[in-house]
Fold these 2 entries.
Entry 1:
Amino acid sequence: MTSVLELGYLGIEASDLPAWEHFAVEILGLQRAEGSHAGQLGLRIDDRAQRILITQGSADDMCYVGYDCGDDAGLEAIVERLRGAGNVVDACDAQTAASRGVRRLFATTDPRGSRIELYVDLARAATPFHSDLVSSGFFTANGGLGHTFFPAAHATMRPFYELLGFRLSDYIQQEIAPGMLMDAAFMHCNGRHHTVAFAAFPYPKKLHHLMLEVNNRIDVGLAYDRVLAARLPLESTMGMHPNDLMFSFYVKTPSGFAIEFGAEGRLIEDDASWEVQTYDRLSIWGHKPPAEVVAGLS
Ligand code: FE
């Protein structure tokens, strides 16, 4: 079945662009995109011209997410499949496509009301990616920008994402408080263990976190030190999930949702032999609320 190939880009509406630029460039080690201008900040993590597009606004949330459909035939097949299942899918005008840096663009809405964009040909930058802070570089080859975690029931979301070609990776079900089950599902569209994940929990934004992956753990540790030195709001300490084995921490962005910053996540090499499992905890170790960990240490 034709599938989207990767999470290509993410759009964010943010009230404080200078804070975002400092956070993304000086703390996390992303690169400011050439086309950035007043009211809009583009960010690079690889050879693409932009992967994160931040526009000035009051939402402080994700406003769209773009998936690569590979070529025109793939794009048309996925659009047709979505329409066949009753989804409204609109062709976007040339100006909107140009603002994303893509040649052709369609847009629809997922069951939680998030704008989902489908494209072909995300522009490459004229210059190589460069970061003074992340020397190993970001991992995007055949894996795209990273993964997103949406606070929504997976039973509601999965059928839509299956239409995009996503396959189930696994589940995590953990009782996080008496009588409160965190029931998460993880889905992939390429070798990255998951590109999208869902769990229903009360959260005021469409996006709980975006995961960015660097190529080694040293760069995760160095970013962790920069976050701590800048006294930025850490959402959880360093830790590791049982399913993707990502070595990561979570920091709150200037918009309130989080970035998971990690390395060395597990890959799904072969779909045919992959077995879906259910894990009973969110993390093997770590990923604790920082106040719980550091209170009384010094
Ligand atoms: Fe994650």
Entry 2:
Amino acid sequence: MDNEGVNKMKNNQFRKIPSLHKVYKSHFLIGAAVNPLTLQTQQELIKKHFNSITAENEMKFEELQPEPGHFTFDVGDKMVAFAKENGMKVRGHTLIWHNQTPDWMFKNEDGSVTDRDTLLERMKLHITTVMEHYKGQIYCWDVVNEAIADEGSELLRHSKWTEIIGDDFIEKAFEYAHEADPEALLFYNDYNESHPHKRDKIYTLIKRLVDKGIPIHGVGLQAHWNLTDPSYEEIRAAIEKYASLGLEIHLTEMDVSVFNFEDRRTDLTEPTNEMKTLQVERYTEFFKILREYSHVISSVTFWGAADDYTWLDGFPVRGRKNWPFVFDENHQPKESFWGIVDFE
Ligand code: HAH
């Protein structure tokens, strides 16, 4: 770091810490993924800086309907109550996904693979029950998560959903969701959303839905980014391409890993100085871009809040810690925080 950087850092230590969501009041909502642990351990931080929450896991299929017809809303309800007490919005995550969905969903009682009509009926029951339960309390839902194939020319990822229902499982999910809560904003959500190949496939999928008149209102860019990837140009191009569909854009799961995806090193107990400097630079530029596009971006959610807890601890490299947020392990603002709140 140069002298200027060091001086800036020293001075920031003495500044009054503004509320992140208040700083972004005229741009977009600022969200955090939460879980029952962080709602305790990070409660003060979350209340001060965020005006939207998403359940990290607690509203996924396996959590809400672990057994056929047996719905467990208690934990999700507590999160919604927390949001209400604190004047926050709630993003619903997620109704239909190939992960964290129980096996019984795809099986008959005798263990054989179920048929299309039965699976559609179960899908409808799940979506309807969940969305009616949270009607008026959850303003938007990730209806389908991660349905696009990462590699190759196939549009959709092969899954139980495509295998049993077929490619139209996505349309059906959106139709059921719209019927269940016509007021809710319905999102398609995916990762690697700024990589040109996947971006174009996500665009193609959503364009088909829009052209067919399927009720879809937004695209969720997960934004699991890192210090080198994706490039700023790729991010701009992705935002512009999705925006051309005329839909709302949310960043739904933002974090900035200090490791590249292929990096397997496990020796660090804290980020290197180079990582720290790069992370400040990346966060600063990311939010500059996001502000530029705030006419199409209405919400930016981090997939966590502070570095003491992140799903990236242990993913994709087991036992390895990560530091992907703008607040440190003690919930103090990092230089990245100052980088995103300092603008004209
Ligand atoms: C996300 N997958 C999921 O949407 C979210 O529900 C989960 O809690 C964490 C991450 C992201 C993902 C990825 O970045 C790479 C490979 C597979 C999945």
